[in-house]
Design brief:
It contains 20 helices and 3 strands. The chain is mainly α. The radius of gyration is 23 Å and the shape is globular. The mean pLDDT is 85.
Length: 427
């Protein structure tokens, strides 16, 4: 239970950062959905009223999370993970389709997106597996099972389709790296992404020639004592070329048109100015309007409820995925910098908390929380300012949505409960 000692041990600084982000989020949701018809924040028929209800529900959930014994989360992590997988699989039968994605359960008064809670279950399951005394992440078999924990929920949400949530599950791989997985895997992953992008931009010939030249230069200037086997090197080069040749097939035959358009806009792949402008007006409309809203805010912003683009509803989904644009227009550079600083401080604080854990499970779960929050924060802000393609994932604690706020709140406060109990031992 949550006694006086446990209350004192809770990291209140993290809670303060959480509360500030939630308040900033609610304030901007109110502003982006405000109407002259009703100014009461308790009007639950309005989006801001619903968000207030979600905040209250999240507070109740937080109290429950903190009241449970810390050992509960480690002991029942596998069960919670299994329940989350069942909830994801159930969408194929009972799911509700919203904006083209069957990612929701219609509960009457409330729609639940199970992928948000599945992130919690997956982080717990991964921490439990990695902290098992029999697990050695340097063994191939254990690496396979660790990756499998991430792949199963990711592959369940991809067909919905919800590629954004799938990417978040893959972000948990950073926990595995923290626990000793060779950085060679990370290097290969980044190299694969680089080959994919450069092939789309410049073609296989350019990729093949460039990599061939780099390999030739490396052989030319390597130390005489450094021995590099020829056959594996040639095999690696051949694999790279084959992969590069497959990129165009995947891009044109596997990706949907909307995905191709997003890449075309992001990487400027379309050479025809007219077609590029058409893509910009459709797929790129949200990002374009979001950038203009942020730019119009200037240094100090236009003021609360004074955002002309916000009032004019220029940016679709401005209260959810694009809430950062409301911050930029009404609160300016000062507002966006404040949000960035709050997130950065929170993430750094969580790293500090994770590193001081005595229990390996708590440390690994802490890094799971950090990975999930960071990937959401990084992609959402990058998407809103036009640095990344539109993926469609919420900004933690700020974006409108009951499932996301509830999921992020539970995710964070489970770790704060584990941290508050770090001086105790449990079986």
């Amino acid at each position: 239970m949550l006694g006086r000692t446990a209350i004192k041990r809770i990291d209140w600084f993290s809670i303060l950062l959480y509360a500030l982000l939630v308040v900033i989020g609610f304030t901007n949701i109110y502003s982006s959905t405000f109407s002259e018809e009703s100014t009461s924040i308790f009007n639950f028929s309005k989006i801001y009223g619903k968000q207030l209800m979600f905040i209250i529900i999240s507070i109740v959930a937080i109290i429950i999370v903190l009241a449970l014994e810390a050992s509960f989360y480690e002991r029942f992590s596998s069960i919670l993970y299994s329940i989350s997988l069942v909830s994801l699989a159930g969408l194929f039968v009972f799911g509700k389709t919203v904006a083209g994605a069957t990612s929701w359960y219609n509960l009457g008064f409330f729609s639940l997106q199970p992928s948000e809670l599945a992130k919690v279950g997956t982080a717990l399951a991964l921490a439990k597996y990695l902290s098992d005394i029999q697990t050695d992440i340097k063994r191939k078999k254990d690496q396979f099972y660790a990756f499998l924990i991430l792949l199963i929920p990711a592959f369940l949400v991809i067909p919905q389709p919800d590629p954004g949530s799938a990417l978040v599950f893959f972000a948990l791989i950073f926990v595995i790296f923290r626990e000793g997985l060779s950085l060679i895997y990370l290097g290969l992953a980044l190299f694969t992404i680089l080959v994919f992008v450069t092939t789309l931009m410049f073609g296989t010939t350019w990729v093949g020639v460039s990599i061939g030249l780099l390999m030739a230069l490396f052989y030319l200037f390597k130390k005489k004592t450094t021995k590099i086997p020829i056959i594996p090197t040639i095999s690696f080069y051949a694999i790279v070329i084959v992969f590069s040749l497959s990129v165009n097939f995947v891009f044109n035959s596997v990706f949907e048109q909307r995905h191709r358009d997003r890449f075309s806009l992001w990487l400027r792949l379309e050479k025809d100015p007219k077609k590029l402008e058409e893509i910009r007006k459709t797929i790129g409309y949200n990002t374009d309007q979001s950038e203009k809203a942020i730019e119009s805010g200037g240094f100090l912003g236009k003021g609360f409820l004074e955002g002309t683009r916000t009032k004019g509803d220029f940016v679709p989904e401005q209260h959810s995925d694009y809430i950062f644009s409301t911050v930029g227009e009404e609160w300016g550079f000062i507002g966006t910098t404040t949000v960035v600083l709050l997130f950065t401080i929170l993430l750094l604080r969580l790293v500090f908390l994770a590193e001081r854990q005595k229990n390996p499970f708590s440390r690994m779960y802490g890094y799971g929380v950090i990975s999930i929050l960071f990937i959401h924060y990084f992609i959402n802000v990058g998407m809103v300012i036009g640095m990344l393609p539109t993926i469609g994932i919420p900004l933690p604690f700020l974006s409108y949505g009951g499932s996301s706020l509830l999921g992020f709140s539970i995710l964070l406060f489970i770790f704060l409960k584990l941290d508050a109990n770090r001086l105790n031992e449990w079986n």
